[in-house]
Structures are given as structure tokens and as C-alpha cells.
Amino acid sequence: MKDPERENARLRRLVADLSLEKQVLADVASRNL
Known about the structure:
Layout: H1 4-32
């Protein structure tokens, strides 16, 4: 069994990365329009 605390931290980091990426893409897209 994996350590749930570590797994949670990993998932949260993954979600944060995705949100950041989405924000950057939206920013770039809005500048190109």
C-alpha cells in the first residue's frame, strides 16, 4: 500500500501544474487575439 499522504501531495502538485499550464495557454491565446 502506498503512503496516502505522499500520493495526495503528488496529485495536488499534478493538478497545480495543469492549472498553471492552462492559465499560461489562456494568457498566450488572449494576447494573440
